[in-house]
Amino acid sequence: MARTLEFALVCSAVFAGGCIDFSTKPVAEEKKPAKPENSGEGIFKKTTQEVGKFDPNAAHQVVSDHKINASDPVSGPLMAYGPILESASILVIKEDITLFEVQNGHYPTYEEFMEQIIRQNSRQLPVLPFKGKYMYDEAKHELVVVRDLANAAKARGEE
C-alpha cells in the first residue's frame, strides 16, 4: 500500500511538472499567429487611413448610394450602420476638400489629398462593413465608397 501511494505521488509530481511552463521568454516576445481575414472580430471602433484612387472604368465595382436598405425591425439598425458611417465620413472629407480648394485655389490631386487632407489632418475613417473601400475621385473632387459586386449586394440586403 505504501509503495502504491509513493508511486501515485511520483506520477502526480511528474505530470504536474509537465503542466508548468518554465520558459523564460517574456510574454510580449511570443509570436501570435496571423489573423485570418474573417476573424470574427468585427469592424466596430476600427479606423483606417487607406484611401485608393478611384477609377470609374474599373470592372466589377459598385459605388455606394449611401441608402439604408432595411426590411425588418430586428436587423434594420445594423443595416443602417454602414450607410450612416459612409455619409458622416464623406461629409467631413467634403469640408476638408472645400477648405483645401479655398486655401490653394485648386482641388487636390490624389497625392495632395492623401498627404494634406488625410495624413496632415490625421483623418481616421471608420472601417466599413461589407468590405467597403474609400476612394478619392479626382474628376469629381469627392470621396466615394466602392465595393465589389458580391459585397454590394450584401450591403443592399439582397443576399
Describe this structure in words.
The protein has 159 residues and is α+β, with helices and mostly antiparallel strands. It has one domain (47-159). It has 4 helices and 6 strands. The protein has helices at residues 2-19, 76-104, 110-119, 149-155; strands at residues 47-48, 51-53, 61-63, 125-126, 133-137, 142-148. The strands form 2 sheets. Strands 2-5-6-3 form a 4-stranded mixed beta sheet. Strand 5 and strand 6 form a beta hairpin. It starts with a helix and ends with a helix.
Describe the structure concisely for a colleague.
With 159 residues, this protein is α+β, with helices and mostly antiparallel strands.
Tag the structure with descriptive keywords.
two-stranded antiparallel ribbon; 159 residues; 14% strand; 4 helices; 4-stranded mixed sheet; 40% helix; extended; alpha+beta
